[in-house]
């Protein structure tokens, strides 16, 4: 093979290296985890889960999503029927900064910049000391397009383990520690 014949191979190899590097960079979120607890990778595909509900505070708009295990539990009447959610139930709560729409008629608030994502997973053996639930909050940085575990300096403050949300959720212990009801459709 002479020098002119090797250029296409060099170009293809270089292109594959760049594409491969982008693919690895896109997967970085799935390597992040809360110390001694939940990993982002345990919630792969959460973006496509059905919506349970939405919420809005002064500082955030959120959509609460649940995996199929949790959706089926909701549909069966849990937690209103007094039964606990089954192991394998998972919730993702995605928060955005509220923003006024410049296009919709009337005063309409829409999601702006993403702020963070929170995860909750039911595993009664793994998280026995926190009501059977593990919690994680990951802060989103738009500049780097990366997530990092929330800390005590974030709002709300998060300890650095899978029990970070348990203290807040104890006020709904009668609902198996879950605030969000499944909205009528």
TrEMBL record:
List, alphabetically, the CDD domains matched: cyt_P460_Mc-like
User: Is Transmembrane helix one of the keywords UniProt gives this record?
Assistant: yes
A Pfam family annotated for this UniProt entry? Cytochrome_P460
The source's superkingdom equals: Bacteria
Record's keyword annotation contains Nucleotide-binding? no
Q: Which residues cross the membrane?
A: 6-26
Every Cytochrome P460 domain range: 44-180
Name the UniProt key words of this record, in alphabetical order. Membrane, Transmembrane, Transmembrane helix
- Entry protein name: Cytochrome P460
> What organism is recorded for this protein?
Hyphomicrobium facile
